[in-house]
Amino acid sequence: xxxxxxxxxxxxxxxxxxxxxxxxxxxxxxxxxxxxxxxxxxxxxxxxxxxxxxxxxxxxxxxxxxxxxxxxxxxxxxxxxxxxxxxxxxxxxxxxxxxxxxxxxxxxxxxxxxxxxxxxxxxxxxxxxxxxxxxxxxxxxxxxxxxxxxxxxxxxxxxxxxxxxxxxxxxxxxxxxxxxxxxxxxxxxxxxxxxxxxxxxxxxxxxxxxxxxxxxxxxxxxxxxxxxxxxxxxxxxxxxxxxxxxxxxxxxxxxxxxxxxxxxxxxxxxxxxxx
Length: 275
Ligand code: SF4
Hints:
By secondary structure, the protein is an alpha/beta fold. The chain has helices at residues 81-88, 92-98, 113-125, 140-143, 162-169, 174-186, 204-217, 253-265; strands spanning 6-15, 23-28, 49-52, 72-75, 77-79, 101-105, 130-134, 152-156, 190-196, 222-227, 269-273. The radius of gyration is 19 Å and the shape is globular. The mean pLDDT is 94. Iron/sulfur cluster is lined by residues 31, 33-35, 38-40, 43-44, 106-108, 135, 169.
């Protein structure tokens, strides 16, 4: 029987933004949402896919047999949990020295729940601290079995209004909110996040509403506002997609401060990233 495999987009070493300390982030391919601003569009499809970078093309004609200039690349590779563990163990000394560990991200990592559970089990057996970044929209029965294997969960609440959430992500937020309440009841450390998309998620009503909801399920919980990151735009064309929000710019720091203060006043420990 063939070993269980997951589809991995990338394993990124020395990551400083996906949890505490120095981390290795394992990006799993596939997502059930379609956020208009998605920062990792190469993770949306579950299957490996081709990307084409015209600026790197040296017209060698070797596209079909392996392109030496990396103008045509395949995004996504099958790995067993053991193979993924082997790669993340390379930096275990850095995790120990910095309080870091391994973060699973995506895409939506719980879409590959069997692989995820097997991989996290191996991480735990090897004494690694683990975190997950999730959109929290899959059924609780899929998420719950992995919780004992995780040290921290980072999840998004993008929009509190369900109609707006459906419009901008393609999915209802109902399960997200139910799961956030379940997560709070489970006692696991978590950080909620909202990506600040100008004109979409950055209204004070939205941020206050999300913060009040969070405070109602876990008083004074960690809540991060992530400023808009314009770098995602360049990722779309190479994989044949069109970016829905061209020309959008990050928010000024003064606005970030205002929104963070509003969220804090609703009963969360809120901080912001400048993007
Ligand atoms: S949930 Fe995350 S990975 Fe999925 S579409 Fe939204 S931003 Fe992209």
